[in-house]
Design brief:
Oligomer: single chain
Number of domains: 1
Structural class: mainly alpha
CATH class: Mainly Alpha
CATH superfamily: Tetracycline Repressor, domain 2
CATH topology: Tetracycline Repressor, domain 2
Helix content: over 70%
Order of helices and strands: HHHHHHHHH
Shape: elongated
């Protein structure tokens, strides 16, 4: 990807996250990226193509984020790594993750399929550790992580490390 394409994607990411996809025009993205609007059309086709490039990057980042967890064989570490996931996201990536949350609502993009490998790894981990209801534990933990991630991205004063330690203790990890 060229430097200009990266600038366009970064500008679109910032504007879509701040103002929403529908409220952001390609001319505004071009101005924010300091490029011509025609360059956006040449590289991405249209605004939807630009969004698709960001969604594709989201898929890649989800795979990277989950890879270490999914490949883990120790069930306790699978759960631990999942709990610690939110606290390990760099603040410089918040706009990217804000957009992922925003898209779930604005465009009704669920992203459930992205979570399947993690759900399976967690379900196996809770089963191996003889939890009474592994499926419910997976649902509870992922809902909690989703809520915690949302709170962090919204700038909540929640202490992520304190919550992480609480969860680790709850699961005897």
């Amino acid at each position: 990807m060229t430097e200009k394409q990266e600038k366009i994607l970064q500008a679109a990411l910032e504007l879509f996250a701040q103002e929403g996809f529908h409220a952001t025009s390609t001319s505004k993205v071009a101005k924010h990226a300091c490029v011509s609007e025609g360059l956006i059309f040449r590289h991405f086709g249209n605004k939807e193509g630009l969004l698709q490039a960001i969604l594709d990057e989201g898929e890649r980042r989800f795979r990277v984020l989950f890879a270490d967890i999914v490949m883990e064989t120790n069930p306790g570490r699978v759960i631990r790594k999942t709990i610690e996931m939110t606290s390990q996201i760099d603040a410089s990536d918040y706009d990217f993750w804000k957009l992922q949350y925003k898209l779930k609502w604005e465009l009704e993009v669920s992203g459930d399929e992205k979570m399947e490998p993690l759900k399976l790894a967690l379900s196996n981990a809770f089963s191996k550790l003889d939890f009474e209801s592994p499926g419910l534990e997976v649902a509870l933990l992922l809902l909690f992580i989703d809520g915690l991630g949302s709170a962090v991205l919204k700038g909540s004063s929640i202490d992520v490390n304190e919550i992480t330690q609480f969860l680790l203790k709850k699961y005897n990890l």
